[in-house]
Amino acid sequence: MNQEITYELPNGITLEIKREDLLHPFVSGNKFRKLKYNVLQAKAENHSVLLTFGGAFSNHIAAVAYAGKEQGFETIGVIRGDELRDKISENPTLSFAQECGMRFEFVTREAYRHKTDAAFIAQLQAQFGSFYLVPEGGTNDLAVKGCEEILTKLDADFDFVCSAVGTGGTISGLINSALPHQKVLGFPALKGDFLQDEIRNFVQNKNWELQIDYHFGGYGKVTTEFIEWMNWFYTQTGIPLDPIYTGKMVFGVMDLIQRNYFPPNSKILMIHTGGLQGIAGMNAKLRNQNKPILVL
């Protein structure tokens, strides 16, 4: 469903957010979309095991673990950072995934960089046997297909569609399904401008651009001012945001509105891509640093 942001905006602009976070209690947002056709393909190929990759607080790891449990698959998570091996109980994401039955293979950060290499995949196959491989973040052609279903006919009146960007799958689906008059804006959670080429692997349309200045220092990084802004947004709207992806996108959209980036009377749709499970891990990190936490 789309929820209107009701406080007053300048220049006749209207702003709504698509609550993809409400799709499923544990496999929410873009993870639901990305896994939909991958799970169907795994079943069609008669696989019984899903293997994927992720970091310590990965939304994707949590989603695959629960989806596997729900759909009758064993799941294996290859986790970046072998120092996490003895810290599962301290990590809400990994604890949740383990409770869902996921087995972990912890690897060094150096080894993790080779996760797409044929030799690395072959080593995992020798260790675990046959499995259906879901890429890090879930992004592949089937994931993009799922994300093409985010926009519906009811969204035709919007001039701009805005989304956070991680691995590029979600925005690729939005670009492919957006109407000719709509422009898609992506807000990368990672520092740098390297995602352009990744996205072009999945799209032909030119109706998009990336806003690369709203990462707050890089992936997983936040500032006190940003956390305080997220808490203000929640008190104003009742909409929880995650601090890694959607929160940064919404902040970016609001900032661009104030900077008159959007023409007067623009109709803007923001996509809430879920990820709320990561709040517990972020708050634990903030508490350790004696910084303000996210209030829900």
TrEMBL record:
Keyword presence, Zinc-finger: no
Signal peptide feature range: none
Recorded superkingdom: Bacteria
UniProt keyword annotations, A-Z: Pyridoxal phosphate
InterPro entries for the chain: ACCD_DCysDesulf, TrpB-like_PALP, TrpB-like_PALP_sf
SUPFAM superfamilies: Tryptophan synthase beta subunit-like PLP-dependent enzymes
Every Tryptophan synthase beta chain-like PALP domain range: 14-274
Transmembrane residue ranges: none
Cofactor (UniProt): pyridoxal 5'-phosphate
Keyword Transferase: no
Similarity comment: family membership: Belongs to the ACC deaminase/D-cysteine desulfhydrase family.
Protein name from the UniProt record: Pyridoxal-phosphate dependent enzyme
Organism: Flavobacterium polysaccharolyticum
